[in-house]
Amino acid sequence: MTLKEKLETDLSSAMKARDEVRTRTLRMALTAVKNEEVAGKQSRQLSDDDVVKVLTREAKKRREAATAFGDAGREEQAQAERDEGAVLEEYLPAQLGDEDLTALVADAIAETGASGPRAMGQVMKAVNPKVAGRAEGGRVAAEVKRQLAE
User: Fold this and answer.
1) Half-sphere exposure of 79 (CA within 13 A, CB side)
2) How do residues 23-36 score in pLDDT, each as one tens digit?
3) Do residues 111 and 126 lie in contact, with contact meaning Cβ atoms separated by under 8 Å?
4) Model pTM?
5) How far apart are CA 112 and CA 137, in angstroms?
6) Domain count, the chain
7) Helices (DSSP H) in 39-95: which residue ranges?
8) Last residue of a domain, one of 50, 72, 90
9) For helices 137-149 and 98-112, what crossing angle results, to 10°?
């Protein structure tokens, strides 16, 4: 079963269970996936990796919106965004811990022989495929920058 099929099956189950948050979140996720499929000149079927990228993007939007609502004192909306983010997290690969991320970046630096902040792009290029969906780009970039500055 592909990830998209799992989302569709879970949406059906959530609708039957009258789980509003889950239903709303899965509908939004499937809409984002379908929009991605028809984006561009030719429609295409997304692979599971592509669906994970879409879901990661949507989860990031939820985190940012929750922070914005929280900062504005709109706690109810912030909690709704966090709830949606929690549903999306169930479909994403487990996030890397700080130790794992540090080790991956160290390996990439050793592999590329990079040194100094100017080599950041070179290291990011090597580390991104290994991280793919398991850590946010900002976290990865911060760790690369920290290790290259040492």
Assistant:
1) 4
2) 999 999 999 999 99
3) yes
4) 0.74
5) 19
6) 2
7) 48-71, 75-89
8) 90
9) 60
